[in-house]
Write a structure and sequence with these properties.
By secondary structure, the chain is an alpha/beta fold. The chain is 38% helix and 22% strand. It contains 9 helices and 9 strands. The chain has helices at residues 5-22, 24-31, 50-61, 75-89, 102-108, 114-119, 183-188, 191-195, 210-215, and strands at residues 33-36, 42-45, 64-69, 94-98, 131-136, 143-148, 153-157, 171-175, 199-205. Helix 1 (5-22) crosses helix 2 and helix 2 (24-31) packs across helix 4 (75-89). It is globular, with a radius of gyration of 18 Å.
Length: 219
């Protein structure tokens, strides 16, 4: 029995959804756009680079990932896209974006970064979860909290061992962790997340100290 045009569209959407849920790189490649600030802020498709695909595969597979970054590496964009993917495709997960200050984390969740990715997803066919609630960040910068209508949420926090107290995290992204004064204490507070099956990713520009020891496997 042949399918009607509407049934074919529904099947196509279902198969794409299942494909993207199982392969975050495929979703990023097919659906995500970035803002290139080095090229007058132009909106561009996420570049299909082999090294980005490799990093994505490692992140998807491993519970802990630590990666040094450079300015044009697009690592921050990639990690924001991956943590947005986690919130979109996994109802009820708790995603945390952690920087030196909450204001820095809130900027990463702003309309110029993570929400830029969300706002530029293809519209019309796919049932992206809708935003149920947003709380603005400190000083009006970005967002401190974003909750979707399937109960996944993303929260911006600053450094420090007490920031995660009372929360159960599914995914945590630590940005520019090499420059935190409380990096090692913050890392210690994430042990319950890792032991509970959560995923932690540390990214930063290179700097001697705690982050270097993480990258080199000394911690």
């Amino acid at each position: 029995m042949s399918l009607s045009p509407s049934e074919q569209r529904e099947l196509k959407i279902l198969l794409e959804w299942q494909y993207w849920k199982g392969d975050p790189w495929a979703w990023i490649r097919d659906c995500c756009w970035t803002m290139d600030e080095a090229d007058e802020g132009k909106t561009k498709r996420f570049p299909d680079k082999e090294y980005l695909q490799h990093i994505c595969a490692v992140w998807h597979r491993e519970p802990i990932v630590a990666i040094p970054k450079t300015r044009r590496m697009l690592l921050s964009w990639l990690m924001l896209a991956l943590h947005l993917w986690a919130a979109i495709f996994h109802p009820q997960v708790a995603v945390f974006i952690q920087s030196k200050k909450e204001k820095d984390s809130a900027f990463l969740m702003s309309d110029e970064r993570m929400m830029f990715l969300y706002n530029h997803l293809p519209q019309g066919e796919h049932p992206w979860p809708k935003i149920a609630r947003k709380i603005g960040g400190p000083g009006g910068v970005g967002y401190s909290y974003i909750k979707f209508d399937h109960n996944a949420y993303i929260m911006a926090i600053g450094q420090g061992p007490d920031q995660m107290r009372g929360y159960t995290a599914s995914y945590v992204m630590l940005d520019e962790v090499a420059f935190w004064e409380q990096a090692e204490a913050s890392w210690g507070a994430l042990k319950p997340t890792i032991q509970g099956g959560g995923k932690v990713c540390l990214i930063s520009s290179a700097q001697p100290g705690f982050f270097q020891r993480i990258v080199e496997g000394e911690i």
